[in-house]
Amino acid sequence: QQQVKQSPQSLIVQKGGISIINCAYENTAFDYFPWYQQFPGKGPALLIAIRPDVSEKKEGRFTISFNKSAKQFSLHIMDSQPGDSATYFCAASMSGAGSYQLTFGKGTKLSVIP
Amino acid sequence: NAGVTQTPKFQVLKTGQSMTLQCAQDMNHEYMSWYRQDPGMGLRLIHYSVGAGITDQGEVPNGYNVSRSTTEDFPLRLLSAAPSQTSVYFCASGGQSNYGYTFGSGTRLTVV
After folding, report:
1. Are A100 and B44 within 8 A, CB to CB?
2. Do A105 and B42 touch (CB under 8 A)?
3. pLDDT in tens, A39-90
4. With an 8 Å Cβ cutoff, are A43 and B90 in contact?
5. CB < 8 Å to A32, chain B
6. What average pLDDT is seen over chain A?
7. Torsion over CA of A102, A103, A106 and A108, rounded to 10 degrees?
8. For position A52, what pLDDT does the model report?
9. What's the rounded Cα separation, in Å, for the pair B59 and B61?
10. Closest of B35, B31, B66, B65 to residue B51, by C-alpha
């Protein structure tokens, strides 16, 4: 049973455009939603994260939007750059002892073309 | 400060062989985990530890053993390798005051 569904699998965006990746979760006990960025041959790196007490979090060109009632959250990359080309994973976890048991989506490969 | 160090980076095993993937962190993190990454499958949790001497199973534990004798080290053991264990393995660690996991650079394992 896949608890975090991520779409699309791949995404091609023009330089300067907006990249949008969506995730949906099923477990209402999840209360921490991070996004990870992974470059080829490297481990995933934490990009930005949100808790359900806010509907949006912005860090530079990266924004997470969160819809608790719909059990959905999304990553927006504004002014996308070729250096943003990577695989992005959404994830979810619970508080307390479960906080580090991350459940990942299957990933989105983003290609930003000049 | 090296972060999370995984060794080896690459390994080829024959079916039935055993090996240990090493993971060490120097950030005094309590939490450590092992994930495997397969094409189109994302990252799946194998085993995790919430402190020295405490380990538990994740989503895909079969065929793998772990132990946590020190805060720094969290080795993953394959007792009898199978082709289905061909994957990229990532170790990660996290501290109690920080929900962000730090991942190692991975071990690419091929079982033939």
Report:
1. no
2. yes
3. 999 999 999 999 888 999 999 999 999 999 999 999 999 999 999 999 999 9
4. yes
5. 99
6. 93
7. -50
8. 87
9. 6
10. B31
